[in-house]
Amino acid sequence: MRLENNTILITGGTSGIGLSFALRLSEMGNKVIVVGRRQEKIDDVLSRHPKLSAIRADISKIEDVNKLTDTIESEYPNLNMVINSAGIMRQYNLFDQDLELKDLTLEMNTNFNGIVYITKSLLPVLDHQRESMIVNISSLLALVSAVDSPIYSATKAAIHMYTDALREQVRANNSNIHIVELLPPLISGTNLTTQYDNALFAKFANSPLSTLVDAGIKGMERNKTQIDVAFTKVMRLSMKIMPRTITHIWGQQTMKAYLKKYNLGFEA
Question: Which domain CATH number covers 121?
Answer without folding.
Answer: 3.40.50.720
